[in-house]
Design brief:
By secondary structure, the protein is mostly helical. 77% of the residues lie in helices and 0% in strands. It is built from eight helices and no strands. It is globular.
């Protein structure tokens, strides 16, 4: 977990500066996960890490497909989740998303667009129910960038909470 923590520092810096997570840093997370599995022992070191990571990435893929989360965020969540045991994966994902929700709420309050954001989300859901077809969450890339939130920070905080024994 310490290796993951050290790798997440440049991941966060890059994500908050450039609004993307480079695959090279994600590959470093992957290698650290395989290494931790190998050094921890077990029947198939690294295989369980890969299975957990792929499972989380697969479960988050539909959210990415409609544009509600970035590809780097999906990969980061999956690769980090591979470090955790079964039940702790759910706690990790829950607290990562809870922290992201708090960050998002603070951002909406600061920018005074809380009502506008919830109105858009409500009309988005209503349109999906009415038409029965999924569509991209925000198809205007400039507007999407203005309201987007980097998930690397909440992921890092959730990891620190786990390492500190909070879950």
């Amino acid at each position: 977990m310490v290796a993951l923590c050290l790798i997440l520092v440049p991941v966060c810096l890059y994500d908050y500066i450039r609004y993307r997570i480079p695959n090279l840093l994600l590959f470093a997370v992957f290698i650290a996960g395989i290494a931790e599995g190998y050094f921890a022992g077990g029947s198939f070191p690294g295989v369980t890490y890969i299975i957990k990571a792929v499972l989380v990435i697969t479960l988050l893929f539909p959210i990415f497909k409609v544009g509600m989360i970035g590809a780097g965020d999906v990969k980061l969540l999956g690769l980090c989740a591979g470090f955790f045991s079964g039940a702790d994966i759910l706690y990790f994902l829950f607290f990562s998303m809870l922290i992201a929700a708090v960050f998002s709420t603070v951002k909406m309050m600061k920018e005074n667009n809380f009502k506008q954001r919830f109105s858009y989300f409500g009309s988005y859901l209503f349109d999906i129910v009415k038409t029965g077809n999924w569509k991209l969450y925000m198809d205007d890339l400039k507007a999407k960038k203005e309201v987007s939130l980097c998930l690397s920070g909440p992921v890092f905080i959730s990891l620190i909470m786990h390492m500190g024994g909070l879950y």
